[in-house]
Amino acid sequence: MATNRTFTMLKPDAVEKGHIGAILEKISASGFRIVAMKLTQMTTKDAQAFYAIHSERPFFADLVEYMTRGPIVAAVLEKDNAVEDFRTLIGATNPADAAEGTIRKMFAESISENAVHGSDSDENAAIESAFHFSGREMF
Ligand code: UDP
Predict the structure, then answer these.
(1) Which structural domain range is residue 92 located in?
(2) Which residues are listed for ATP binding in this entry (predicted)?
């Protein structure tokens, strides 16, 4: 995968609150092109695998419960410097620390239910995109 792509999920809290449209609007207005997108729901196994790096953390069980409780929007986004620019757009993990105008500041409630995911490296962007999409689902 090219390094100008990142992977995102609009998490269950954002979908439940009806924020899909507003968040996608902000993503598009910030210069990201949608390369792949779908509404889907992670199974417990999916979430445990996706967040395996956090399996020893105290919040892991709650994270898996949260990420599987309802549908998410999974998407692959393209832009120069996509990974870093998207992390800037979403803001800090804890919305209380997120900068004004960031997606987490605007739409997230807590460090656990923080509305949106963004890959933290080009390598993880490729792995996470492949986790949710086949090659012919990316345009
Ligand atoms: N998380 C949590 N409690 C914490 C830290 C993280 O519930 O103290 C959750 C939160 O949903 C976060 C996800 O675990 O988005 C992954 O954590 P990471 O540190 O990778 O943050 P991110 O890359 O999503 O900003």
Answers:
(1) 5-137
(2) 11, 59, 87, 93, 104, 114
